[in-house]
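Changelog note: in this version the structure field was regenerated for every chain. One regenerated record is shown below for reference.
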Amino acid sequence: MARAKRKEAPSRLTQLPSLSSRPAWQGTLRLSLVSCAVGLYKATTASNEVSFNLINPKTGNRIKMVPTDSETNKAVDRASLVKGFEVEENKYVLFSDDELKSVKLETTRTLDIERFVDADTIDRLYWDTPYILAPADDSAVEAYTVIQQAMVKANKIALGRVTMHTRERLMAIEPRDNGLLATTLRMNDEVVNTAEALAAIPQGKIDKQMIDIAERIIEQQEGPFDPKEFTDRYENALHNLIEEKRRGHKVKSVREAPKGNVVDLMGALKRSLDKKPARESVPKKKTARR
């Protein structure tokens, strides 16, 4: 009697290009009774950001940050520390890891879709960090595709909650190309009362002609958004500075920028009309040789 062939374990999907090899979160995406294993991969990167270390200039050695007791000034073993919450000045309640785990929610491992809304009903103030939401393995592809295609036809944003980095985050999930994009949304208590603040801004009495000229300046500078035209000029300047210092070159001091104190507003507006809109000049980043 021929032996039944063993079913091979579903293979993991090939690493998606441009994304980290490790997801920021792994769990289950669930729409009612339909579920699939997924991972969240950051859709942004900080790889170009310059990060400095604190160095002792006398020795050239890096400084270590040693945890120290604020009263005794003695160094403390980091592994022995526990988390505490200040209930009164200099009085804390302490928590063990088990106590903190006891309040973890199901959203730790499940991204449960709770509601579908129109995209324009979510204020841009609430949008935070974008992620690629991808199936975790081949066995999840079918259910993932069903959810993704249904969302394409519905043209809605899905809302669900997930626990990331010990905090529960509200996620907005939207179909994009062949997959799903998930963006963390700020909670209501993380957004200040902008309506109250904006309403308190004083309104000056302005000559209508000034507004007309300003509108014409806006028309002159209209154009499509192309992210390639906008780079972090400060980061680029830092990379160039690092390269100059690495080569032992003397760095020139920078003059202070002139203060923008406009006395004749009408004159400034009229001069702005004659000025052609300038494209951003992007200094090329020098790549340090190894």
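Spot check on this record: The mean pLDDT is 85. The first helix runs from residue 97 to 101.
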